[in-house]
Design brief:
The complex is a heterodimer of chains A (343) and B (197). By secondary structure, chain A is an alpha/beta fold. Helix content of chain A is 42%, strand content 19%. Chain B has a domain at 76-167: Dna Topoisomerase Vi A Subunit, Chain: A, domain 2. Classes of the chains: A alpha/beta (343), B alpha/beta (197).
């Protein structure tokens, strides 16, 4: 079984009844350009029943540069192979830095609604896309923290002296400051575009505020006894949160479900604009199951808010769900069980 | 599973770094298949190395004498000590033919996750050596990894005010293309840039 689709620049609408495979198609594009599924961590589930492997090949143009060719193969053993222009990549994370793709699925509501961990993860993903040179900082900080926590526990168990925590306190403090700096850079790059995209979608003064949380060596030293007691580092950017507010109201606590959805979409549009501006490369947007939840005015605002030059794939159950005020899609793909027909 | 003797061989091989059960089995079967002399030559080499090779009293490098060749060489500058993680690092630095000082082999890098604490490395010996020999410079040449950096930081802190401490520069590999450099290396190379003379 194979499907070949040519997608034009601009907007492509993927139209079909519930359960025919619209999300599948969007997910295939995500796997093919990011190396990971939008829906599950277990990508082997994406393999057709009875088949040995699934493969997505994508070809396209990047802002400045020749055509790229990307190939992602997932085998039933769970092994994943990723080739970019014929060169094997060590991990799919590399692909995320190379090809910017932003996706919305109903699960993404958790970015506003969920706990601080979801927002930190989201911010760090944005960080990798917006500032690729600092993409490794969150992971480095996490490793340093794991070393310090291991040292704390070994001290508590009497396996090591207190001085063994010292080098990791210094490493955690230095990398924590670096992580804060990168997160602040991302938050401030998003600030104005976010206010604009929020306004467009009807959320006044939308803001994502990051409070720096890195602890200095002196602060970490002061809490050393408590940290040893608990076996974990009790201060730092691994505990920070991002406050997403409209008109000063924190949407996690005081936003309606609709407002929370709009905030997630506004974040996505803002990031698309930042990536386009900073990297000179408009990202690919994958928007699943979003039009049905918005009123006519906001549907039009969302489609009109897609930054120039971005290619976007949007799912809809009927053609009527496509906003009539916004420019029509460049292509409509009708999805039927097992088929996708471009019209 | 096979015979107690074979099982023992496999379990001994499994204790080697980087060797899992499958590899250990393959190695064991290989050793049983080759001529007796070949297999025993390996056993003899292990025995000879273990009996004759030890660690240099001064620097911790591998040696058959009490003091290694570098430490025993009067032409080497004993006031400059280069600190490395492993004996293999000494070989790499020696290949440059640039370095005329002596070495200090730590035997690893700090990593609480792997249970490696300061007292497991030859750090105290280094501090004593600096004090005793009036060392003028300590070159920290631990790996540019997180554990290597933390180890360098820990030692530097303890040597502060007692001697000059330097750290190997990190940057771009010679003869390579900027295009293929990873962002971290390139970032470090950028922050460590220097004036063109």
């Amino acid at each position: 079984m194979a499907l070949e689709l040519e997608l034009p620049p601009g907007l492509t609408a993927i139209v079909g009844a519930n359960g025919v495979g619209k999300t599948n198609l969007l997910d295939a594009v995500h796997v093919g350009t990011q190396g990971s599924s939008l829906r599950t961590r277990r990508e082997v589930r994406g393999i057709r029943f009875g088949a040995k492997a699934a493969r997505v090949e994508s070809e396209g143009v990047r802002a400045a540069g020749p055509r790229f060719r990307c190939e992602v193969t997932i085998e039933s053993s769970g092994a994943k192979r990723t080739l970019l222009d014929g060169v094997p990549l060590e991990g799919a994370e590399r692909l995320r830095r190379e090809l910017p793709v932003l996706a919305f699925t109903p699960d993404r509501l958790a970015v506003v609604k969920g706990g601080p961990l979801v927002r930190r993860t989201y911010l760090d993903r944005s960080l990798a896309r917006i500032l690729p040179s600092r993409a490794l900082t969150p992971g480095e900080y996490a490793r340093a923290l794991a070393q310090r926590n291991a040292a704390l526990r070994r001290v508590r168990l009497g396996l090591a002296g207190r001085e063994s925590v010292e080098p990791w306190t210094a490493t955690v403090a230095a990398l924590g400051a670096k992580l804060d700096e990168a997160r602040i850079a991302v938050a401030s790059a998003l600030e104005e575009p976010l206010a604009r995209s929020g306004e467009r979608l009807g959320l006044a003064r939308l803001a994502a505020r990051y409070e720096p949380a890195a602890a200095t060596i002196a602060e970490l030293d002061r809490r050393l006894a408590a940290d040893i007691e608990r076996g974990v580092t009790g201060a730092g950017p691994h505990l920070a949160d991002v406050a997403i507010c409209a008109e000063g109201r924190e949407l996690r606590l005081y936003g309606s479900q609709g407002e929370q959805r709009l905030a997630v979409l506004a974040l996505l549009l803002a990031e698309a604009e930042v990536i386009r501006g900073l990297r000179g490369e408009p990202p690919l947007l994958l928007l699943d199951d979003v039009l049905s939840e918005l009123d006519a005015r906001r549907r039009a605002a969302l489609i009109a808010g897609i930054p120039d030059g971005c290619q976007a794939l949007v799912t809809a159950t009927t053609r009527a769900a496509l906003p009539s005020e916004a420019p029509p899609p460049a292509l409509v793909v009708d999805v039927e069980p097992g088929r996708a027909v471009p019209r | 599973m096979f015979s107690p003797v074979v099982d023992e061989l496999i379990s001994q091989l499994t204790r080697l770094p980087g060797v899992g059960t499958r590899t250990a089995q393959r190695l064991a079967f290989h050793l049983l298949r080759v001529p007796k002399e070949d297999a025993l030559a390996l056993a003899d080499a292990i025995r000879a190395a273990k009996e004759r090779v030890g660690f240099c009293r001064e620097c911790g490098n591998l040696t058959e004498e009490e003091v290694c060749r570098v430490c025993a060489d009067p032409r080497r500058d004993h006031t400059v000590v280069c600190v490395v993680e492993q004996p293999a690092d000494v070989l790499s630095l020696e290949r440059t033919h640039e370095y005329r000082g002596v070495y200090h082999v730590l035997g690893g890098a700090l990593s609480p996750l792997d249970g490696v604490e300061p007292e497991h490395l030859r750090i105290a010996a280094l501090l004593r050596r600096v004090e005793r020999d009036g060392v003028a410079e300590v070159v920290l040449a631990t790996n540019p990894t997180m554990t290597g950096e933390a180890t360098a930081g820990f030692i530097a802190e303890r040597l502060r005010g007692r001697t000059r401490v330097t750290r190997l520069a990190s940057g771009l590999p010679v003869g390579s293309d900027l295009e293929y450099a990873d962002e971290v290396t390139l970032g470090r190379a950028l922050s460590g840039r220097r004036e063109m003379a």
